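Review form for a predicted model. The reviewer records the input and the model, then writes brief findings.
Reviewer: anonymous (R2)
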Amino acid sequence: MTTATIPADIGDETNARILAISEDRIAGFLEDPFAEIARLSGVEQDVVHARVRAMLSAGTIRRVRQTLMATNLAPGALVAWRIPEEKLEAAFEYFVHDDPFSGHVVIRSTDGATTGSGYRLWTTLKVPQGYSRTKHCSLVGARVGAEAFRVMPAKRLFALGVGHVRRKGMAPGSRSEEPGRVMDTNIVELSEREWRVLEPLKRELAVSEIGAMPWRARAEEAGVPYVEFLQVARGLAERGVIGRFSTFLEHVKPGADGTRVTRYNALFHWRVPPGREIEAGREVGRHHILTHAYWREGGAEFANVNMMAVAHGTDKQLVLEHKAAIDAHLEEAGIPVSYTNVFWGGRSEIKPSEIAPGAYVAWCTSIGVDSESLRASSDEEVGAA
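Model under review:
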């Protein structure tokens, strides 16, 4: 059977079984992640290889890669941009195509004029260690005509995992018995040898690389013996900088058969009392519908919210019901919410953010900027600009 004749839609029963595991259930680093997907899904390994190849070829899966805990490798932030409406689309294109350090690029809106609704463009940002988020934003903001921006680093994370197939049909209020775990964002410094392994490790796999022992060719590329490559990768996992091995679905655009994994992308905002952010985050992080939950400071631009989370769904009312269930749980837990809002995602593109220091220097050179001018100072203020 050729790849073209193998089912590649998410509605296929075998594909759904594979995706329920491969989206966000393979944690850490494994020498043969596809073998683990086969074991946990109950699908034979050669079938897993064939189905993932078919879905990647068809665009159902947009990328297959070993993810990193990039918040522990490079200073990151969620950035909200206020950009004149007539420049919004051009700015979107710039961040997608010309800024490799911006990842998720989303045009958002609210259901009415509210605090912060003038900030339509949202991006995630990673700058390599030693460089300044604020200086980077000032540089690219001038290029896209931004009137203002807000840099919001994550102080803690409480939920992180995609799993769109797994979340389909989930009932509002579905949550764990235990509070969400607290993940810190401390930066881990790597050696030259570790970067040498990490750079090829993190790059997405091509269709031809979907198979047993996918890291052999990457070890050759790095010029590192295979056993040593595995040792370094396992050591990075032990240090907490390796995320999960994942097949990322194309959940923004319709698939080849016209179906969508999700239609609505909602960014929830809450303001809870200062000092109770971690407690609130652990309660929010219980809820299975959330792909991300974190403590970020929105500042006056966003009514001083300090808790944010992301949920996806195919039905807007159902997404709102999920949020209402979280709101009710916070009230039951005795955590007052003095303000809340929802920012809905519209046009969006998702790409991995580059984090390698050498790549940053090369990018600066390509646009005629001295990378040293973008170095972070010890007292750098990240926040409003």
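Findings: Residues 381-385 have pLDDT under 50 and may be disordered.
Further findings: The chain is about 30% helix and 20% strand.
Recommendation: see findings above.
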